[in-house]
Write a structure and sequence with these properties.
It is a single chain. An 8-stranded parallel beta barrel has the order 1-2-3-4-5-6-7-8, surrounded by 8 helices. Helix content is about 40%, strand content about 15%. The protein is globular, with a radius of gyration of 17 Å. By secondary structure, it is α/β, with parallel strands linked by helices. The protein is built from 11 helices and 8 strands. It has a single domain (about 5-260), classed as Alpha-Beta Barrel (TIM Barrel). The structure holds 3-methyl-2-oxobutanoic acid. 3-methyl-2-oxobutanoic acid binds next to strand 6. Its cofactor is Mg(2+).
Length: about 260
């Protein structure tokens, strides 16, 4: 496949080719995810849930993210690695810069942060200093206590308008990618069509440029199953087969289907 960069992803969007992102937190799974043909690996702060056993991503610390990013980057071959900035590590521009630098020096090619308009100055500042940014909108898990639970976002005209405005603003600020989580499919499709940068969906329907799932969810290991998750391990004999099936299903437009989608 060759080393994936942000320009590979831009070209795939322009050509209408779907790409794939899977989370990984250690060397073994990073190698398997990369060998399965996923273009991007997300070292997500979802490791707070699936690795550390917390009930949310809020307890995850900067040193956890640096440690797991380094583990992933040692074994990854071709995929582009995006690493999450955890809760409260980018609330000031100074913190965002020093913490992003740690993730980049651990081997990430891009950092991800949750939020919209309020982050635009921070995004511009990071990009000017050589740190590519993926923004994350919709159901942003670090704000679970503001939302009062893991709830679909963008269902009212006002909230849909605000997510769209945030998306445009973060693109204008210089973000290279956008993750849209748990929003109605029509809104995600609209945003993906309006933006030039690639949009990666999770629980956001089939109209985005790419799909991401948490590794443990797609392998059926999480012990819970949100509506948008498919267990790709079902009927497979190996983790490699399950990862390959997810990659192929996204690329063929066979995942997500209607039953995985919010309206
Ligand atoms: O932390 C994570 O794994 C994420 C995905 C759910 C997009 O942010």
């Amino acid at each position: 496949m060759g080393k994936i960069t942000v320009s590979t992803l831009d070209k795939m969007k322009a050509a209408g080719e779907k790409f794939v992102c899977i989370t990984a937190y250690d060397a073994t799974f990073a190698r398997l995810v990369s060998e399965a043909g996923a273009e991007t690996i997300l070292v997500g702060d979802s490791l707070g849930n699936v690795v550390q056993g917390h009930g949310s991503t809020i307890p995850v610390r900067m040193e956890d993210m640096v440690y797991h990013t380094a583990c992933v980057c040692r074994a990854n071959t071709d995929a582009m690695v995006i690493a999450d900035l955890p809760f409260m590590t980018y609330s000031s521009a100074e913190d965002a810069l020093s913490n992003s630098a740690m993730l980049m020096q651990a081997g990430a090619q891009m950092v991800k942060m949750e939020g919209g308009v309020w982050l635009s100055d921070t995004i511009s500042m990071l990009v000017e200093r050589g740190i590519p940014v993926c923004a994350h909108l919709g159901l942003t898990p670090q704000s679970v206590n503001v939302f009062g639970g893991y709830r679909v976002q963008g269902r009212t005209p006002k909230s849909a308008k605000s997510i769209l405005a945030d998306a445009v603003e973060i693109q204008d600020a210089g973000a290279s990618l956008l993750v849209l989580e748990c929003v109605p499919a029509h809104l995600a499709t609209d945003i993906s069509e309006k933006l030039d940068i690639p949009v990666i969906g999770i629980g956001a329907g089939a109209g985005t440029d790419a799909q991401v799932l948490v590794l443990h969810d797609l392998l059926g290991l999480s012990g819970h199953s949100p509506k948008f998750v498919q267990n790709f391990m079902a009927g497979k004999n190996s983790v490699q087969d399950a990862l390959g099936a997810f990659v192929q299903a996204v690329k063929a437009g066979e995942y997500p289907r209607e039953e995985h989608t919010y309206s």
